[in-house]
Amino acid sequence: MTALLKAYMHLCLLSKGPQSIPYSNILLRIVLVLYFVTGVLSSLPSSSFGQSVLMMCVDIIVLMLFCWGCLQIFRKLSRFNQMMTAILGTGSLFQLLAWPLMFYFEIAQAKQVVVPELGFLLLMLISWNLAVYAHIFRESFGIRLYAAFFITLAYAVISVTLRQLLFPELGA
To answer: What is the pLDDT of residue 171?
Structure first.
């Protein structure tokens, strides 16, 4: 377990790739559930439980289809398990880090208090998360970093656009 946490930390620090994560269907299922739970928790401050569950279901489907499609295009479908295990595991860590920030952000909004440091921390966390995704995409697809950033940006735009279309009441 400690070795697995270290592997995820190395992924988050961009020092190792998804190949450092063991190929395991059981581990993939575990991190999928963990990603779902941490995602629901981190979105609860700004939405209802039902909306949070639905948003995470959509998020996971979009993420898995996007990754599967890209791996299909690059003819590296055999990397799906480790890539998804890496993305979902690191995503869970980022969602855990975001949870208290989102909670305090909602409290500040309710009190109509502006806390620029909180917004800055959220922006830095999102940027770091996207950099990790780009790193995982680069390693998984065997492409250059700028191409991986472009793919990451495409995923982010698709994800945010779908969230806005499906959940306009959240304004996210």
So the answer is: 59
